[in-house]
Amino acid sequence: MFSKILIANRGEIALRILRACRELGIKTVAVHSTADEDAMHVRLADEAVCIGPAASRDSYLNVAAILAAATITGAEAIHPGYGFLSENADFAETVEAHGLTFIGPTADHIRMMGDKITAKTTMEALGVPLVPGSDGELKSLEEARAVAEKVGYPVLIKATAGGGGRGMKVAQSASELEEAWSVARTEARTAFGNDAVYLEKYLDKPRHIELQILADNHGNVVHFGERDCSLQRRHQKLLEEAGSPVLSAEQRDAIGRTATDALAKMGYRNAGTLEFLYQDGQFCFIEMNTRLQVEHPVTEMVCDVDLVREQIRIAAGEELGYTQPDISFSGHAIECRINAEDPDTFAPCPGTVAVYHPPGGLGVRVDSALYTGYRVPPYYDSMIAKVIVHAPTRAQAIARMHRALDEFVVEGIKTVIPLHRRILADPEFQKGEYTIHWLEQFTSRPH
Ligand code: MV4
């Protein structure tokens, strides 16, 4: 096991990783920008190194400074968290080239899944179901036309280097295809330096369901069930649930077996998430995330697992020590992301937290690096806390979240807590009847 880990991140996830390290008896090194001198992760870590100015590019994305900090402090491994360098294959490779351990998958697997066409063709060959569409890259507009006729309109043209909602164009009918094709390619070339695109049938009312996987370095692969992440706005998730309100235990077992078999054949290692669109009872793989995800706590609550601890143990070469039948699912968990934003306009609202009083009690978890007097800097993501509840049933989890948000006091800055309360009170949400489009409609309704 490692004796010292450098945490290449900030905010609540740096704290989350730090907590797992503490419980494993591992010393921690925080890195921080000049804007984060007073941040909680800096205060709680055993050592802290300033790696540059406020702008992420100069600090949290500064590979040379992070590696220097690891070397100076004698850290043996680096946990990247999510965002920043977490899905940067070159970073993973450089970390390993310096004799350190990257806590995550191999650079090759990160690179493979970063290219969406390679990700899809790899998964298809391993028996994972896809959205109907092109067989890999579209070589010409004529090919795009032929595939679109075959799968039927509307269709989406997607950039292989895109993902997470970037680099997509819809064509409602044949008359829109040429425009979608040329705009998608031009944008992909400009944004990613790679104009390779592929085509998929456009699914009009899917849910976004993702599957959490862990794989050790000894060929053991398990899944921890699904998260329903359909409640999002402009590709920013706002509320996530485990399990999905629409999935049966049998469906979970089936897609879980397909996914774990595929990742075992790939030789995948560490944590990974397969993203699916789910519509009309069918799973369609779209992308894979090769990192720990923001919403991992809902899985931790229903499976009673510490996913960060497992990531660290795996990276240290330990065996999982359990198999799929050992993993059980208990109750229901919901996470509300609390962003420092206006709840109506979603404009970021950085500033000083005048009063901070987090909720507590049975089945309530708060992952946050906030404290009274903390100044939320304007340079980074606006998410300041995650409230996670766990209860025997979904209805009880909703009641518990309502209660927790009632207790939550954050003064001095605006947050999206009022929006969460409205969502939780909505009859459609309570019935679990929502698709990826539901929240955008909900937030444009008068209230
Ligand atoms: C789609 C789709 C409909 N049909 N693909 C957006 C983000 C990226 N991960 C994939 N995305 C989508 N791909 C087909 N064939 C709709 C979306 C989509 C979406 C997906 C997941 C979560 C939120 C979304 C919001 C808008 C569109």
From TrEMBL:
Per UniProt, the keywords (alphabetical) are: ATP-binding, Biotin, Fatty acid biosynthesis, Fatty acid metabolism, Ligase, Lipid biosynthesis, Lipid metabolism, Magnesium, Metal-binding, Nucleotide-binding
Q: Where is the ATP-grasp domain?
A: 120-316
Tell me the SMART domains matching this sequence: Biotin_carb_C
Q: What does this protein do?
A: This protein is a component of the acetyl coenzyme A carboxylase complex; first, biotin carboxylase catalyzes the carboxylation of the carrier protein and then the transcarboxylase transfers the carboxyl group to form malonyl-CoA.
Pathway of this protein?
Lipid metabolism; malonyl-CoA biosynthesis; malonyl-CoA from acetyl-CoA: step 1/1
Q: This protein's superkingdom? A: Bacteria
Q: Where is the Biotin carboxylation domain?
A: 1-444
Q: Name one GO biological process term.
A: fatty acid biosynthetic process
What EC number(s) does the entry state? 6.3.4.14
Which reaction is catalysed here?
Answer: N(6)-biotinyl-L-lysyl-[protein] + hydrogencarbonate + ATP = N(6)-carboxybiotinyl-L-lysyl-[protein] + ADP + phosphate + H(+)
Q: Which Pfam families did the record assign?
A: Biotin_carb_C, Biotin_carb_N, CPSase_L_D2
Task: Note whether DNA-binding occurs among the keywords.
Answer: no
Q: How does it assemble?
A: Acetyl-CoA carboxylase is a heterohexamer of biotin carboxyl carrier protein, biotin carboxylase and the two subunits of carboxyl transferase in a 2:2 complex.
Q: Which GO terms describe its molecular function?
A: ATP binding; biotin carboxylase activity; metal ion binding
Q: Which residues form a coiled coil?
A: none
What InterPro entries has UniProt attached to this entry?
A: ACC_Biotin_Carboxylase (IPR051602), Acetyl_CoA_COase_biotin_COase (IPR004549), ATP-grasp (IPR011761), ATP_grasp_subdomain_1 (IPR013815), BC-like_N (IPR005481), Biotin_carboxylation_dom (IPR011764), Biotin_COase_C (IPR005482), CPAse_ATP-bd (IPR005479)
Q: What is this protein called?
A: Biotin carboxylase
Keyword tRNA processing belongs to the record: no
